[in-house]
Amino acid sequence: MLSSTHYWYDRKLMISALLLAAIGMIMVTSSSLHYAENSVNGSTNYFVIRHMIYLILASVIAGVILMVPIVKWQKYSGYLLVLGLVFLILVLFAGKTINGSRRWMALGPITFQVSEVLKLIVVVYLAGYLVRRTDELQTQIKGFVKPLFVLALITALLLLQPDFGASVVILTTALAMLFLGGARLWQFIGLTLAVTGILAIIAVSQPYRLERLTTFMDPWSDPFGSGYQLTQSLIAFGRGSIWGQGLGNSLQKLSYLPEAHTDFIFAVLAEELGLIGVLGVLGLFFIVFQRAMNIGRRALLQQRPYAAYLAYGIGFWLTFQALINMGVTSGILPTKGLTLPFISYGGNSLIICSIAIAILLRIDYEGHLVNQRLLRIEDCEEPINDFATKGDKS
Question: How many structural domains compose the chain?
Answer without folding.
Answer: 1
